[in-house]
Amino acid sequence: MISPISSLTASLSSFFFPPLCVSCRSLLNDKSRFMLCERCLEELALFNEEDSLMTLPSGVLAASSGPYITIMTRLIRALKFSQNMAAARALAAIIMETNCPRYLLTGADIVLPVPISHRRRFMRGFNQCELILAEAAKMRPIAVNYRAVARRHRRAQSRLSREERLKNAQGAFMLLTPEVLRGRVVTIFDDVMTTMATAEAMVAAILTAEPKEVRVVTAARTL
């Protein structure tokens, strides 16, 4: 039973700090979803099941919730560059409500967020993939493993050309506990996929552990 004091506190909080759209900061209403206002919801582009799926050059199945445009771009950048936790919750909710990404995450024995190097974690303070998965795990059971794979420090992929990204990602990942991956269904999670260089490099590292299957899920991917 909710106490009168708790109810009053919640009412005052809503009055003085009303919920705002994570994308445009306008007020939310009863028709809002994913912490987005009606206008931003109309702009939100999500894939249907057929368009969500793709096969990487390595033969691995990948699924994304939507294209890396408009609202998805804003949410991912708000999280990555400002540690906006409302954006993390919104992205998690979107992923959990799109069938193919949700299935590949919840149906995996192990889910691996794409790691960042120790140096980048020290500079940034967080890994956005881990934050999204932590929020998603509050909505559905997800077997997240944060320690099986590490990443060597390299130049930031976002600042490189396609050819430079492919070369920069090669050999970037190392397995710390390969035995936990052997014979298991493993899903890699990243926030966005552009050239597929990061995903393919991590897939190559994981395949050396002889898993049963490897899949990739991203919140968004470029068209």
How would you characterize this protein structure?
With 223 residues, the protein is α/β, with parallel strands linked by helices. The chain has a single domain (47-221), classed as Rossmann fold (3-Layer(aba) Sandwich). 41% of the residues lie in helices and 17% in strands. The protein has helices at 4-16, 38-43, 49-52, 70-82, 85-96, 99-106, 118-124, 128-136, 162-169, 197-207, and strands at residues 53-55, 61-67, 110-113, 149-151, 173-175, 185-193, 213-221. It has a five-stranded mixed sheet with strand order 1-2-7-6-3, sandwiched between helices. The protein has a two-stranded antiparallel ribbon with strand order 4-5. α4 packs across α5. The N and C termini lie far apart (49 Å).
Q: Give the overall shape.
A: globular
Which CATH class?
Answer: Alpha Beta
CATH architecture: 3-Layer(aba) Sandwich
Read across the widest sheet, the strand sequence of neighbours is 1-2-7-6-3
Q: Sketch the topology as an H/E string, one letter per element.
A: HHHEEHHHEHHEHEEHE
From the structure above, extract its key features.
5-stranded mixed beta sheet, Rossmann fold, globular, alpha/beta, 223 residues, two-stranded antiparallel sheet
Write the layout of secondary structure elements.
Blueprint: H1 4-16, H2 38-43, H3 49-52, E1 53-55, E2 61-67, H4 70-82, H5 85-96, H6 99-106, E3 110-113, H7 118-124, H8 128-136, E4 149-151, H9 162-169, E5 173-175, E6 185-193, H10 197-207, E7 213-221
Parallel strand pairs: 2-7, 3-6, 6-7
Antiparallel strand pairs: 1-2, 4-5
Helix pairs in contact: 4-5, 5-8, 9-10
